[in-house]
Amino acid sequence: MPPGERGGYNPEQLIPSEPTQPKDILAELDAQSVEIKKRRSLKITRPSNVRGPERKVDAKRPEQERNLIVRFEREEILRIYKLLREKGAHAGKSSEGKPSELLKRFRERAKQLERNLDLLSEQLYKNVRPVQIEDADIGQHVVPVAELCLPDDQRERTDKDTPYVTLAGIATNHHQQAALAMAMALQGKRVFAMTHPGNALAKTPKDWAKHVRQDGTYRLQAKVLQEAVKKLGLKEFHMVGYSMGASVALKAARDPEFSRAAKEIDLIEPLGFENLGLARLGYRFLGKETVGVMRDPESKLKAFLSGNKTTGLPGGPFIADAFALSKEQFTVRELAELRPEGKLRIWTMSQSTLVDVAAVRGKIAAANELREGATANHPIEFYTVEGDTHSTPLIHANGFASMLEHGPGVPSGDEVSIAQLDNSAARALFRGVVDAESRKERI
């Protein structure tokens, strides 16, 4: 079961009556989040339908039910409404007793956010394309790819509306990367959320696990990614890989055609920079990462529970993938030979439970030295983000998505403060409303 659950809410009943300052509400939100983490008492709204009767959920039709990420966001909106009610008139009512601009603006945008979240939740089921691949090297595959996209009036479209392609952790599908994929779609971009060929929703050759194990690298998985992008007809895209997905994308970037089409490549917490062995990988994943995540309800919800209603993990391909993850896959020379069309950025958590930050930093520095003088190539950028688990990018997916779209705001090699990365779209929305109101007051 998810962490806590609570019922619905009526924003119209939550209009505040006592004065306060908007910045106080942001501070109180932060304080509440710290307390929730300490008490491990995260709550989300109860199961409900995207369409039709709110409370009648049919377990046999998961496409009608709001997923865990949407229910988490709805609870965050409720928390903000409650604080507005408790904290005051400056945030809630004007001196004439009418709702202030802050409350009206937040209420309007929060309703739109909920509509957008419901739409994206539906698209994870309804906008899924079974991409068929056939290649002599990898055999026949059918890989589900979900396309997430807000309506045109909710997007900041440009002449070069480059979509994102996302690939997440070991053997995951598009449902299991909902936190990251939905957050990126909320940035106003099209997102193609890929499924690993080792996942139960994908159709792979019967001997796929055997071939992956014999190969011992990410080469075969990278070939599936390359062919899937071609089948989708994407002439250019922004590649975002997380965990094993980052490692597969990095291997795919060695292909000139893939590298030219990938206008930007962001790799978050990639493995394969050191030779771990299965025992050490197992200790880091089970003994450190899993234990830490399971102790924190929000981490558990976003990293482990999200999407698990749809599929389990198959034995053979999962073990074969783990075998590849345990080995060193990227040498300094291979990194130096990469020729991306645009930026190549690698991100690790400052205290990652799975990735050796020093090993990644050292190899990138050495590769960039070799790359100096290479024709028309960007250096590989490297950033650390304040965080103590491999799953931090999923917990703070909304902040990460915004940072990938707009840039980290610090030079390559520096650390990004976790305070810059909102853990919910609702919090980011409210912060934006408060900042807008503050600018008005200064004018």
UniProtKB/TrEMBL annotation:
Residues 52-62 have a biased composition (Basic and acidic residues). Transmembrane segments: none annotated. Residues 1-22, 38-62 are annotated as: Disordered. Residues 168-255 form the AB hydrolase-1 domain. It comes from the Bacteria. SUPFAM superfamilies: alpha/beta-Hydrolases (SSF53474). This is AB hydrolase-1 domain-containing protein. It comes from Candidatus Uhrbacteria bacterium RIFCSPLOWO2_01_FULL_47_25. The lineage of its organism: Bacteria, Candidatus Uhriibacteriota.
